Amino acid sequence: MSVGKAAVKVLHLGRISYGSALKIQQQHIKQHLDWSSISPNTLLLCEHEPVYTVGIRQAPYPPEEERRLKELGADFFRTNRGGLITFHGPGQLVCYPVLNLGCFKKSVRWYVCELERTVIKMCSKFGINASTSPDTGVWVGNNKICAIGIHCGRYITSHGLALNCNTDMSWFDNIVPCGIVGKGVTSLSRELGRDVSTEEAVPKLLEAFTEQFNCTLTYNGSFS
After folding, report:
1. Single pTM value for the model
2. Across the 224 residues of the chain, what is the mean pLDDT of every consecutive 10-residue run?
């Protein structure tokens, strides 16, 4: 007897503040944990206003560092995801999968690897040779094109991935991205030598996600 594919709903949030997107994630997580409600697995797609976020390892980022970054014109959030500091902003496609891993495979390591493989597959659709490294995320040579940082509680996932499309890369100059010294960042636009918008990247990312997670997608909202 064959097992049906998991269904995943895609929600396009457009450009939204990090705090607002965090609240939407929390609402979807709560629905998953509420046994009286039926909550679909969901992909939240968005762009953020400029913001620096840090993960659960917050010691390297005292209040003085938070103030310095805010003075640059960005917001700052301390979160419960894995990983160290990164930047989100316009021109970066952010994908927050809120999934019940019971519908896929109850393994956080498997899940992170599948996210990496999804982005590698998407990059290949653009003709970009991307790969993993001992450091989490997806890389083109020694430059990170996509950061990955997740949280998983009771096998419900949150946070996710941030793919640089036509991001203003100068924002990364103010930090050591993901705390990794000696490596850089890149974007789809930089690798291809032309402007690649988030709108252009979305279909290829969703196609790769569908293939990698063996799921079916339903859609709600438009990306703008």
Report:
1. 0.94
2. 77 97 96 77 98 86 94 96 94 98 96 98 98 95 97 96 98 87 92 98 98 93 46
Structure tokens at 53: 């976020």
Q: Which of 148, 171, 28, 150 is nearest to 93 (CA)?
A: 148
Q: How far is CA 35 from the centre of its chain?
A: 27
What's the CA gap between 50 and 76, in Å, rounded? 9
Cα–Cα dist 162/93, whole Å? 6
Q: Which residues face 41 on adjacent strands?
A: 8
Q: Is 153 a known ligand-binding residue?
A: no
Residues annotated as part of the active site: 178
Angle, to 10 degrees, between the axis of helix 198-213 and the axis of helix 108-125? 130
91 labeled part of a ligand binding site? no
Say if residue 82 carries a ligand binding annotation.
yes
